[in-house]
Design a protein that fits this description.
about 350 residues, alpha/beta, two-stranded antiparallel sheet, 16 helices, about 10% strand
């Protein structure tokens, strides 16, 4: 494996100097793009789109054709893993993801097993390989998975939840059952991410979307501990190149130091924490990724540029340790042309910051 021609993203993750701050966007291939909506219509359904490697490749590349982004991210869904466990994933119109067989009975929890990703999730590995070929070594490809706790939320609640009543009841009443689910799911996620790396992913990210709903003690026991287990087992080098890892806990600003010590190379930040404060707290232990409020992209282009510059200025000087991103996924209502203003502002202003620093030193 050789590094891509544009390896700025990988160098930033590994805390190597970069000429500018690299940028990619969570959920960059999605409903805000008209070409994505057309492809999804051709696919017939969201799940059919995810399970068709050629179409998954097509939508992964769509934002790269529009914008000068520094990384591609596999188009898939975090819930493919519990679907492969036999829970029966489906998408109800206007209601989001649902499971036909959520984990409500003790027997179903005791018999839960981690699927073989090369068997039950082969379509994802085929998509990774196809995307790598299509990228032709232009920019890196990010693979990903949901965290065990976030996946467990969906697996126990049966879908999205506002209060996490079922999983939190289990957490306090029957922690043994929740630990069983999390242990099996951690094994599944580890095998899944390693299979993506073997198929060509050049960095991997764990999305802990619901970890921030936990108390401090519960976060460490039921979320972070299982992500640490995964990070410890990841393939760290493939064909002579390091495979960096990222962890994003939405609402995890209170636990930055613990996340930074988890074994990951980069910590994703949501928009609720000042990135400069985060940098002061974790130092140079990890790269920081983030953290523009996605709602900024509804504003006029000059306002978008100003807010992007604010994030860069808050991070501060230096040519290492920052990957620019949103603090969460891009909204489906974002005007596509507004992303151009963001990308241009980040790349142009961060170059100027580097040049100014070089003149001073």
């Amino acid at each position: 494996m050789t590094r891509p021609r544009n390896d700025t993203f990988l160098r930033a993750l590994l805390r190597e100097p970069t000429d500018y701050t690299p940028i990619w966007l969570m959920r960059q291939a999605g409903r805000y793009l008209p070409e994505y909506r057309q492809t999804r219509k051709r696919a017939g359904s969201f799940l059919d789109l995810c399970k068709n490697p050629a179409l998954a490749c097509e939508v992964t590349l769509q934002p790269l054709a529009r914008y000068e982004l520094d990384a591609a991210i596999l188009f898939s869904d975090i819930l493919t893993v519990p679907d492969a466990m036999g829970l029966g994933l489906y998408f109800a119109e206007g209601e989001g993801p649902k499971f036909e067989r959520p984990l409500t009975e003790e027997w179903s929890i005791r018999t839960l097993i981690a699927p073989d990703p090369w068997d039950h999730l082969r379509y994802v590995m085929d998509a990774v390989a196809e995307i790598r070929r299509a990228l032709d070594n232009s920019v890196p490809l990010i693979g990903f998975s949901g965290s065990p706790y976030t996946l467990a939320c969906y697996m126990i609640e049966g879908g999205a939840s506002d209060d996490y009543r079922r999983i939190k009841t289990m957490l306090y009443d029957r922690p043994d059952l929740l630990h069983r689910i999390l242990s099996v799911t951690a094994d599944a996620v580890l095998a899944y991410l390693n299979a993506q790396i073997e198929s060509g992913a050049q960095a991997v990210m764990i999305f802990d979307s619901w970890g921030g709903s936990l108390s401090a003690d519960a976060y460490r026991e039921f979320s972070l501990a299982y992500m640490e287990r995964i990070l410890a087992g990841l393939i760290r080098k493939k064909d002579g190149e390091r495979i960096p890892s990222l962890v994003f806990t939405k609402g995890g600003g209170l636990w930055l130091e613990a996340i930074a010590a988890s074994g990951c190379d980069a910590v994703g930040l949501d928009w609720t924490i000042d990135i400069g404060e985060a940098r002061r707290r974790v130092g140079d232990r990890v790269t920081l990724q983030g953290n523009l409020d996605p709602a900024v992209l509804f504003a006029a282009p000059e306002k978008i540029a100003a807010e992007a510059i604010r994030v860069l200025e808050n991070f501060g000087p230096g040519d290492t340790g920052h990957v620019f991103n949103l603090g969460h996924g891009i909204s489906q209502f974002t005007p596509p042309e507004h992303v151009i203003a963001l990308v241009n502002a980040v790349q142009e202003y961060s170059r100027k910051m580097r040049e100014k620093q070089q003149r001073v030193t």
